[in-house]
Design a protein that fits this description.
Radius of gyration: 21 Å
Strand order of the largest sheet: 2-1-3
Strand content: 5-15%
Number of helices: 10
Helix content: 55-70%
Length: 186
Protein backbone atom coordinates (compact mmCIF):
# COMPACT_ATOMS: atom_id res chain seq x y z
CA UNK A 1 0.00 0.00 0.00
CA UNK A 2 2.98 2.32 0.51
CA UNK A 3 3.88 1.94 -3.17
CA UNK A 4 0.31 2.84 -4.13
CA UNK A 5 0.53 5.93 -1.94
CA UNK A 6 3.88 6.81 -3.55
CA UNK A 7 2.33 6.54 -7.03
CA UNK A 8 -0.59 8.72 -5.97
CA UNK A 9 1.79 11.31 -4.52
CA UNK A 10 3.84 11.32 -7.74
CA UNK A 11 0.67 12.09 -9.68
CA UNK A 12 -1.17 14.44 -7.31
CA UNK A 13 1.37 15.52 -4.70
CA UNK A 14 0.80 15.30 -0.95
CA UNK A 15 -2.78 16.44 -0.48
CA UNK A 16 -2.93 16.36 3.32
CA UNK A 17 -0.12 17.98 5.30
CA UNK A 18 1.87 16.02 7.85
CA UNK A 19 1.79 17.30 11.43
CA UNK A 20 4.95 18.12 13.39
CA UNK A 21 5.81 19.83 16.64
CA UNK A 22 8.80 21.95 17.53
CA UNK A 23 11.34 20.28 19.79
CA UNK A 24 14.70 21.51 21.08
CA UNK A 25 16.83 20.70 18.07
CA UNK A 26 14.26 20.66 15.27
CA UNK A 27 10.88 19.07 14.63
CA UNK A 28 9.22 15.81 15.59
CA UNK A 29 6.68 14.09 13.35
CA UNK A 30 3.29 13.71 15.04
CA UNK A 31 1.25 12.20 12.23
CA UNK A 32 1.69 11.46 8.57
CA UNK A 33 4.54 8.97 8.74
CA UNK A 34 3.27 6.93 5.79
CA UNK A 35 2.82 10.08 3.69
CA UNK A 36 6.34 11.20 4.56
CA UNK A 37 7.83 7.80 3.61
CA UNK A 38 5.87 7.69 0.36
CA UNK A 39 6.93 11.27 -0.48
CA UNK A 40 10.57 10.30 0.08
CA UNK A 41 10.05 7.25 -2.16
CA UNK A 42 8.62 9.63 -4.79
CA UNK A 43 11.77 11.79 -4.43
CA UNK A 44 9.88 14.90 -3.35
CA UNK A 45 12.07 17.57 -1.83
CA UNK A 46 9.22 19.38 -0.03
CA UNK A 47 5.78 18.46 1.31
CA UNK A 48 3.12 20.45 3.15
CA UNK A 49 3.62 20.55 6.93
CA UNK A 50 1.57 21.95 9.78
CA UNK A 51 3.70 22.95 12.77
CA UNK A 52 1.91 22.66 16.10
CA UNK A 53 3.31 24.73 18.95
CA UNK A 54 3.07 23.72 22.60
CA UNK A 55 1.85 20.17 22.00
CA UNK A 56 2.44 17.88 24.98
CA UNK A 57 3.90 14.40 24.69
CA UNK A 58 0.49 13.03 25.69
CA UNK A 59 -1.34 14.96 22.96
CA UNK A 60 1.27 14.07 20.36
CA UNK A 61 0.96 10.38 21.18
CA UNK A 62 -2.83 10.56 21.12
CA UNK A 63 -2.91 12.28 17.72
CA UNK A 64 -0.52 9.73 16.23
CA UNK A 65 -2.55 6.82 17.59
CA UNK A 66 -5.88 8.25 16.45
CA UNK A 67 -4.58 8.86 12.94
CA UNK A 68 -3.20 5.33 12.74
CA UNK A 69 -6.46 3.79 13.94
CA UNK A 70 -8.47 5.71 11.36
CA UNK A 71 -6.61 4.10 8.46
CA UNK A 72 -8.87 1.97 6.31
CA UNK A 73 -6.35 -0.79 5.67
CA UNK A 74 -6.21 -2.06 9.27
CA UNK A 75 -7.60 -5.50 9.97
CA UNK A 76 -9.85 -5.92 13.04
CA UNK A 77 -7.01 -7.32 15.18
CA UNK A 78 -4.68 -4.41 14.38
CA UNK A 79 -7.48 -2.01 15.24
CA UNK A 80 -8.23 -3.89 18.50
CA UNK A 81 -4.56 -3.82 19.50
CA UNK A 82 -4.48 -0.10 18.73
CA UNK A 83 -7.49 0.51 20.99
CA UNK A 84 -5.85 -1.57 23.70
CA UNK A 85 -2.61 0.40 23.32
CA UNK A 86 -4.47 3.72 23.57
CA UNK A 87 -6.15 2.52 26.75
CA UNK A 88 -2.92 1.44 28.39
CA UNK A 89 -0.55 4.21 27.23
CA UNK A 90 -3.01 7.08 27.56
CA UNK A 91 -4.86 5.71 30.61
CA UNK A 92 -8.20 5.86 28.80
CA UNK A 93 -11.41 3.89 29.22
CA UNK A 94 -13.27 2.32 26.31
CA UNK A 95 -15.76 5.18 26.00
CA UNK A 96 -12.91 7.72 25.93
CA UNK A 97 -11.13 5.80 23.17
CA UNK A 98 -14.40 5.61 21.21
CA UNK A 99 -14.91 9.36 21.56
CA UNK A 100 -11.36 10.15 20.39
CA UNK A 101 -11.52 7.94 17.31
CA UNK A 102 -15.12 8.86 16.43
CA UNK A 103 -16.71 5.46 17.00
CA UNK A 104 -19.43 4.04 19.22
CA UNK A 105 -18.25 2.50 22.48
CA UNK A 106 -19.80 -0.82 21.43
CA UNK A 107 -17.55 -0.87 18.35
CA UNK A 108 -14.45 -0.44 20.51
CA UNK A 109 -15.74 -3.09 22.95
CA UNK A 110 -16.43 -5.57 20.14
CA UNK A 111 -12.93 -5.09 18.76
CA UNK A 112 -11.34 -5.57 22.18
CA UNK A 113 -13.27 -8.83 22.65
CA UNK A 114 -11.51 -10.18 19.58
CA UNK A 115 -8.26 -10.21 21.55
CA UNK A 116 -9.81 -12.80 23.90
CA UNK A 117 -10.27 -15.26 21.02
CA UNK A 118 -7.72 -18.02 20.38
CA UNK A 119 -4.74 -17.03 18.23
CA UNK A 120 -5.96 -19.25 15.37
CA UNK A 121 -9.18 -17.25 15.10
CA UNK A 122 -7.30 -13.97 15.34
CA UNK A 123 -5.03 -15.16 12.50
CA UNK A 124 -8.08 -16.02 10.39
CA UNK A 125 -9.34 -12.46 10.89
CA UNK A 126 -5.94 -11.00 9.99
CA UNK A 127 -5.87 -13.06 6.79
CA UNK A 128 -9.48 -12.12 5.93
CA UNK A 129 -10.74 -15.69 6.16
CA UNK A 130 -13.38 -14.49 8.65
CA UNK A 131 -15.02 -11.17 9.29
CA UNK A 132 -16.07 -9.45 12.51
CA UNK A 133 -19.53 -11.05 12.40
CA UNK A 134 -18.05 -14.54 12.26
CA UNK A 135 -15.67 -13.73 15.12
CA UNK A 136 -18.44 -12.29 17.30
CA UNK A 137 -20.49 -15.43 16.74
CA UNK A 138 -17.53 -17.70 17.59
CA UNK A 139 -16.95 -15.72 20.79
CA UNK A 140 -20.30 -17.12 21.93
CA UNK A 141 -18.64 -20.51 22.48
CA UNK A 142 -16.76 -20.70 25.78
CA UNK A 143 -14.42 -23.58 24.98
CA UNK A 144 -11.42 -22.41 22.89
CA UNK A 145 -10.99 -25.81 21.19
CA UNK A 146 -14.64 -25.76 20.12
CA UNK A 147 -14.23 -22.20 18.90
CA UNK A 148 -11.28 -23.28 16.75
CA UNK A 149 -13.13 -26.33 15.40
CA UNK A 150 -16.12 -24.19 14.45
CA UNK A 151 -13.86 -21.55 12.90
CA UNK A 152 -12.13 -24.19 10.79
CA UNK A 153 -15.49 -25.53 9.63
CA UNK A 154 -16.74 -22.00 8.93
CA UNK A 155 -13.71 -21.29 6.75
CA UNK A 156 -13.63 -24.70 5.06
CA UNK A 157 -17.34 -24.67 4.21
CA UNK A 158 -17.58 -20.93 3.50
CA UNK A 159 -20.35 -20.31 6.01
CA UNK A 160 -22.11 -16.99 6.18
CA UNK A 161 -22.28 -15.17 9.51
CA UNK A 162 -25.86 -16.44 9.97
CA UNK A 163 -24.76 -20.03 9.36
CA UNK A 164 -21.94 -19.59 11.86
CA UNK A 165 -24.39 -18.15 14.42
CA UNK A 166 -26.72 -21.13 13.95
CA UNK A 167 -23.77 -23.50 14.33
CA UNK A 168 -22.73 -21.77 17.56
CA UNK A 169 -26.30 -22.01 18.89
CA UNK A 170 -26.43 -25.69 18.00
CA UNK A 171 -23.05 -26.33 19.65
CA UNK A 172 -24.15 -24.57 22.81
CA UNK A 173 -27.52 -26.32 23.00
CA UNK A 174 -26.14 -29.78 22.19
CA UNK A 175 -23.75 -29.72 25.12
CA UNK A 176 -20.83 -28.91 22.88
CA UNK A 177 -21.06 -31.76 20.37
CA UNK A 178 -19.88 -30.66 16.96
CA UNK A 179 -22.96 -29.67 14.95
CA UNK A 180 -23.61 -30.67 11.40
CA UNK A 181 -23.30 -27.96 8.77
CA UNK A 182 -26.06 -25.42 9.29
CA UNK A 183 -28.61 -25.34 6.54
CA UNK A 184 -28.60 -22.42 4.19
CA UNK A 185 -31.34 -19.88 4.63
CA UNK A 186 -34.37 -20.63 2.52
Amino acid sequence: SLEGLRDSIKQHGVIQAVAVRKIDDGYELISGGRRLKAAKMANLAMIPVVVHEKITDQTSLEWAMVENLQREDLDPIERAKGFQLMMSRLSLKQDQVAERVGLKRSTVTNHLRLLELPEEIQDALIHHLLNMGHARALAGVTNPQKQIALMEKTVREGWSVRQTERSVQAANSSGGKSPASPSSPK
